[in-house]
Amino acid sequence: MILHFGFERPTPEIMAAWGQWFDSIADRQVDRGGFSGGREISKDGTRDLPWDMDAITGYNVIEAEDLDEAERIAQTNPFIASVRVYEIRSM
Questions:
Q1: Neighbours of 85 (CB within 10 A)
Q2: Is residue 90's pLDDT more than 90?
Q3: Domain count across the chain
Q4: Could you tell me the residue range of the domain that residue 11 belongs to?
Q5: What is the pTM of this model?
Q6: What CATH code is carried by the domain that includes residue 21?
Q7: Is position 45 within any domain?
Q8: What is the tens place of the pLDDT at every residue in 20-66?
């Protein structure tokens, strides 16, 4: 799973780069989605999460041979702040 972090108002150039990246992983993509807001719930209560450079803005579930291959795929992503790669384990 690739988690996308960071939000800034998209430019046409950024949107084109994202479109190219989505096309490049289409044969490996299992699922994808985006977020529009969120809340953090803790023992201290609940707070709305800001839509800023620390926000998780979306995800892609991809098929990869291993975590190293997933990282190579993620490195081609036109991320805003960063991306994080996680291996999903079977339950």
A1: 20
A2: no
A3: 1
A4: 2-36+50-85
A5: 0.89
A6: 3.30.70
A7: no
A8: 999 999 999 999 999 988 999 999 999 999 999 999 999 999 999 99
